[in-house]
Design brief:
single chain, about 280 residues, alpha+beta, 7-stranded antiparallel β-sheet, two-stranded parallel sheet
């Protein structure tokens, strides 16, 4: 009895598939030549309209303002990341991000004794490349420096992965002003690297360390990391981990942003438009 039932069920399924296949075959297909075509001029016009719409917009994203002090005197990167993650609804803590998720390398001091008793002891400092790791400890006022976009991207993705989050962080370094505005227009705050008070970038010649490849690295003394939250016709708006809500003329802000090769990080959702950095 069971065998007959199974045989009848199989026949029924075959009939259904055959009918469906015949109906699909009856649906006319559109050849490539029959598809609506957009002329180059129309495409250019659409692009110009889109650029004009984004440029003329006024965007102010509601981002929580977090401060790096007192816990992270050199932790503007993780404070900005915490603000960005909180914007997406996560209960991100800046100190936990710095301790558990940020790729960082502490400094190593190596003493070398001179050839004679009169020669002073030389102390050499060894540390990481900030493009790869945070240099030192962001919780230390003396032994904490900074990192650039990739370690922050790695920290964000490690955190998001631990939360089983649908979002992912993107290193969008190289983004120009319009690319930044486009991300903000699509409700994506962007972590960017600028200078303190938007002053010219300056090195700290009294301090240096040796990188793993043997090169000498002289750090910047006024590098800063903030979260870009909006713009209008004349200004960029951002959350500063030191001073809270800030605004700056676009040209001045972009000059400071260019000081460090346009470092930038954001977080994207799976349904967000794919936005490319413009170099």
């Amino acid at each position: 009895m069971m065998k007959k039932f199974i045989a009848l069920l199989c026949c029924f399924c075959v009939m259904i598939f055959c009918v469906a296949d015949s109906r699909l075959a009856a649906i006319p297909t559109m050849a490539a030549a029959d598809m609506p075509q957009i002329s180059p001029l129309s495409a250019l016009s659409l692009l110009e309209n889109r650029i004009a719409k984004i440029t003329a917009a006024s965007v102010h994203l509601q981002v929580p303002f977090l401060y790096q002090y007192p816990e992270l005197p050199n932790g503007c990167e993780m404070t900005s990341l915490a603000s960005l993650l909180c914007y997406y609804g996560y209960d991100a803590d800046k100190t936990i991000l710095a301790q558990d998720y940020l790729p960082r390398v502490d400094f190593t001091l190596i003493e070398s004794v001179g050839g004679s008793a009169n020669e002073p002891i030389q102390i050499d400092l060894y540390g990481p490349n900030p493009a790869q790791y945070y240099a030192g400890d962001p919780a230390s006022a003396e032994l904490g420096y900074y990192c650039f976009a990739q370690p922050v991207t790695d920290a964000a993705n490690a955190y998001l992965s631990a939360q089983n989050a649908p979002q992912h962080a993107v290193n969008c370094s190289g983004a120009d002003a319009f690319s930044l505005m486009t991300r903000l227009y699509h409700k994506q705050p962007v972590i960017v690297w600028i200078t303190l008070a938007l002053a010219p970038a300056a090195k700290q010649p009294s301090t240096s360390w040796t990188l793993p490849n043997g090169a000498t690295y002289v750090p910047y003394r006024n590098l800063h990391c903030v979260l870009l939250t909006g713009y209008d016709a004349d200004y960029f708006y951002y959350a500063d981990p030191l001073y809270g809500a800030q605004m700056a003329e676009k040209e001045l802000f972009m000059t400071a942003y260019h000081s460090f090769a346009r470092q930038a990080v954001t977080v994207q959702t799976p349904y967000a438009p794919r936005l490319m950095a413009t170099k």
